From TrEMBL:
Residues 89-112 form the RING-type domain. It comes from the Eukaryota. It comes from Pyramimonas obovata. This is RING-type domain-containing protein. Signal peptide: none annotated. SUPFAM superfamilies: RING/U-box.
Length: 112
């Protein structure tokens, strides 16, 4: 488990250094940095908790396309919920990690 954590830490350290060396604003990469920290924290408990890769640009684009199909009042409601903090997933009753919007406008964990 220690070997797994160390390799994950080295990978994320390289990624963080690339972000800072490229002059990118850390604010614009805030979600990615938090995601890396979350995975490191999960690795402390068990490697199996570190599941799946970071959300890709293609997945984000698909979510955006789905969100534009929603009624304006539903979009505003979702925006208000997300801006108020990380929403709760109604299926697992945990904080919605990598929240995804369903066709009906509900927020779920991507895994749920």
């Amino acid at each position: 488990e220690r070997k797994f954590y160390t390799s994950l830490q080295a990978k994320f350290t390289r990624a963080f250094n690339e972000l800072t060396n490229n002059g990118a604003s850390l604010g614009s990469n805030y979600v990615n940095i938090l995601w890396m920290l979350l995975r490191l924290r999960q690795a402390c408990n068990h490697p199996a908790l570190c599941g799946g890769p970071a959300p890709s640009a293609a997945v984000a684009a698909a979510d955006l396309a789905a969100a534009t199909q929603l009624k304006p009042e539903v979009r505003q409601s979702l925006l208000d919920r997300v801006q108020g903090g990380v929403p709760e997933c109604p299926l697992c009753m945990d904080l919605a990690e990598a929240p995804s919007v369903s066709a009906c406008g509900h927020l779920f964990c991507r895994q749920c």
